[in-house]
Amino acid sequence: MKIATWNINGIRAREAQVVEWLGREQPDVLCLQELKATRDQIPAPLASRADYWSYWHGERAYSGVGLLVRKACCESPPAFTHPDFDFETRIVSATIDDVSIASVYVPNGGKDFAAKLRFLEALIAYAGECALGGRRLMLCGDMNVAHKDIDVHEKERKATAIGQLPEERAIFDRLLGAGLVDVGRTLDPDNGEMFTWWPPWRNMRQRNIGWRIDYILASPEVAARAVSCPSYREVGTSDHGPVVVTLS
Q: Are β-strands 62-70 and 29-33 bridged in parallel, bridged antiparallel, or unpaired?
């Protein structure tokens, strides 16, 4: 099974790229973030695909998440739901087999840092409730936190930058402590070039000077099945690249 996440930074701007990549990569589940579009504005080639159930949760020109589930995985549409802490169309989840998979877009925090911390705290509570209830969980998306120094290129490391602040990293520690595994880092613990976002200037992406802020976090039972979890710098023109986990 293959599960992918991708902050596309505008689904209308990246329509052709998403359609092409979806057809080539063929993930069983695709989590999208930063749609910047309402449901009615989703391009038809993505909104009504014959091979995927899809759900779109967005606002005009801002935020938004989507979730696509291959019909071969589900005979009927899964129930798409939002936790009660959802705001600004930032999270949608669906249960496939016995795993709840959520597409998540954590606030950047530049305009309202307190709102970012509240959202992360709510994610911790959500993950903890799932763990206590015996539910397997995958949080897939743009978490807007670089967990460790290794997740930021040395030219970009700055302890006072939002996304690298000690209090954000401490909250991320607690999120993992709520019963989740950082799949990509677990599989590739020493890779200092595994970035998923690059500042959109000075050819930073081409030079791979970036941050790792997009993650697939999973319950231990799910993470144990992961055989690979790379990010793809060469895919698309969003400032983020997709991350794909393959489960045995």
A: antiparallel
Q: Average pLDDT of 154-165?
A: 98
Quick one: tokens of 149?
Answer: 């120094």
27 and 70 Cβ atoms separated by less than 8 Å: yes
d(CA 204, CA 202): 5
Nearest-angstrom CA–CA distance, 74 and 204:
40
Within 13 Å, how many C-alpha atoms sit on residue 60's CB side?
A: 1
**The token pair that represents 85 in the structure block:** 């802490």
Q: pTM value?
A: 0.97
Q: Where are the beta strands (DSSP E) in the chain?
A: 2-7, 29-33, 52-59, 62-70, 80-81, 91-96, 99-105, 136-142, 181-182, 214-218, 226-228, 243-247
DSSP structural state of residue 85? T
SS3 assignment, position 18? helix
At residue 48 the predicted structure's pLDDT band, cuts being 50, 70 and 90, is confident
**Which residues does residue 105 pair with via DSSP β-bridges, in sequence order?**
142
- Give the span between the Cα atoms of 73 and 53, in whole angstroms: 10
CA distance linking residue 86 with residue 55, whole number of Å: 15
Q: Tokens in use for 39?
A: 């449901």
DSSP 97-166: TTEEEEEEE----SS-HHHHHHHHHHHHHHHHHHHHTT-EEEEEEE-----SGGGB-TTT--TTSTTS-H
User: What Rg do the C-alpha atoms of the chain give, in angstroms?
Assistant: 17
CB atoms within 10 A of CB 134: 8
